[in-house]
Specification:
mainly alpha
Length: about 375
């Protein structure tokens, strides 16, 4: 079976079981029936640079995963951190730090495959740790203007310096990270981790590892230079001529999910009725703006929510607080949530996420409210 056929079969199998995909597709059908005249603009609603960046990162990180290095690294990590609590805290802090310095999605592309690799070599509760890594990506990225897309947008809108933005967001970052660390230590038992003897699912392919790593940082530079589309073509061509099996194993269904989500959410956000409704919410009241940002983020994700609210208010700091808090709660609140949950490869991850995320939203939103309005 050639690579294209294998990839197509893998995609069809993934889509057949992907309920989120079918929900988004069903929503698109309803939106199209309601206003079929908007059909010609659907392609313009997709953020193609984001899709290109996501595709390249999926391919490169899949190359690192299939090289077998993450499994070897996972075993070494277990030997140094022998309890599930120690491993979870280390990975959560690592995710939060990387989210501050890179972006939340890049942090997840680095840490989640490493965590998932632990499933094959140990008794680590992988699904729960991946869920907390999603929280950590949202919490850590809150701090810096480059941590997530909504911060980048609001940073440009505010005209604030990098350090001014960080100073404004530091209280919220602490409000997010501290409860998360407390939750992580309480949710894990502190039990010793057992290494599965004789388990070595992947031999170490150093050539694939080095090639993937060599492509990783230049690819990030090209994304930063707004050349993601060009960069992804180069990455795809390199893997096509060297390791086609990597392309066959990429989660192409995730790309389709993101494309559908861009179209669905932007159709909803740009609907005149939605704009009229939001205009009647009294967003000149800071408290109303704060809670509206959190709620809208749950419905259309926090990046479109930030763009939408900026049409009604110039208070970039308050909008930033609202939409970053809104990344918690339901999975749709942040794109990072969807990335992490899909990469977990476990249906129970969706339930585990919401069991912890909804209470976390209540705690963080309450603490942020106290900081903004009562202290």
């Amino acid at each position: 079976m050639d690579t294209q056929a294998e990839a197509a079969i893998s995609l069809l199998r993934a889509l057949r079981k992907d309920y989120f995909f079918w929900v988004l597709l069903g929503l698109l059908v309803l939106l199209t029936i309601a206003k079929p005249e908007r059909l010609p603009i659907y392609s313009t609603l997709v953020d193609w640079p984001t899709i290109a960046a996501l595709t390249g990162l999926l391919v490169i990180t899949k190359g690192v995963e299939l090289s077998g290095y993450l499994h070897h690294l996972g075993k070494r990590l277990i030997l140094r951190l022998p309890t599930d609590r120690a491993i979870a805290v280390f990975l959560v802090l690592t995710t939060a730090l990387l989210s501050m310095l890179l972006t939340n999605d890049v942090a997840l592309f680095i840490v989640v495959p490493l965590t998932v690799g632990l499933r094959a070599v140990s008794t680590v509760p992988v699904t729960r740790i991946v869920v907390f890594e999603a929280f950590a990506a949202n919490a850590g990225s809150t701090l810096t203007p480059i941590g997530n897309p909504q911060n980048l947008f609001l940073w440009q809108l505010s005209q604030a310096s990098f350090y001014q933005y960080v100073g404004a967001m530091l209280p919220l970052a602490l409000i997010c990270v501290i409860p998360l660390l407390l939750l992580t230590t309480r949710a894990l038992t502190g039990r010793s981790i057992t290494i599965v003897d004789g388990t070595n699912p992947h031999s170490l392919n150093k050539r694939l590892l080095y090639m993937s790593l060599a492509l990783y940082f230049p690819f990030l530079v090209f994304i930063d230079l707004h050349l993601a589309e060009t960069a992804v073509i180069v990455v795809l061509a390199i893997f096509l001529f060297t390791y086609r099996r990597v392309l066959a194993r990429v989660d192409w269904a995730l790309i389709l999910v993101f494309m559908l989500m861009f179209v669905d959410m932007r159709l909803i956000a740009r609907d005149p009725a939605v704009y009229e409704l939001i205009g009647q919410l009294g967003l000149s009241d800071p408290r109303q703006l704060y809670f509206t940002g959190i709620v809208i983020s749950q419905l259309i994700s926090n990046v479109p929510a930030a763009i939408l609210l900026a049409e009604y208010s110039n208070d970039w700091r308050l909008i930033a607080y609202a939409v970053n808090v809104g990344g918690f709660g339901f999975m749709l609140g942040s794109l990072a949530n969807i990335i992490a949950l899909r990469m977990a490869h476990d249906r129970e991850a969706w339930l585990t996420f919401h069991v912890h995320s909804l209470p976390l939203l209540l705690v963080i939103s309450g603490l942020a409210y106290l900081w903004l309005f009562l202290l």
